[in-house]
UniProtKB/TrEMBL annotation:
Full protein name: Hemerythrin
UniProt cross-references to SUPFAM superfamilies, sorted A to Z: Hemerythrin-like
Similarity-based family: Belongs to the hemerythrin family.
Pfam families on file: Hemerythrin
Alphabetic keyword roster: Iron, Metal-binding, Oxygen transport, Transport
PANTHER family: BACTERIOHEMERYTHRIN
Zinc listed as a keyword: no
Amino acid sequence: MIANWDVKYETNISEIDSQHKKLFRLINQIETIYVENKGHLTTKTKSLVEAVSELEDYTLSHFLIEERVMELNQYPDLEAHKKQHDRFTDKILELKNRLTSKSLLTNDDELNVFFSDLIAFLRLWLTNHILQEDMNYKPYIKLVL
Ligand SMILES: [Fe+2]
């Protein structure tokens, strides 16, 4: 099932909310390619790798902006929050490296398992992170970039 935006994810910081919405869209984009091509994903490797790279790039720039906003507002749990971002960044890099390995890109069964796991992981991580971690900084943010 596609992850839908919901008011419960709103931080009321418009720049952050629009970036979070874009992250949902990027995950949905990966899921759409997966769902429409299940069983023959080896024919769509270029689109899949591009979609994952786009998500990776956008996530990194989003994290930097979010961290600058937290810093600007002297958010007391900034370091712990940054660690969550770093851990996710490492995980995405590791998954991207696995994806671009030749053995995975040429095997339909393995690609199916990889994407089914990847999509579940991304959706769970993003929704949990917003609801648990991002909501914690919400009351501290008075200044935006
Ligand atoms: Fe965050």
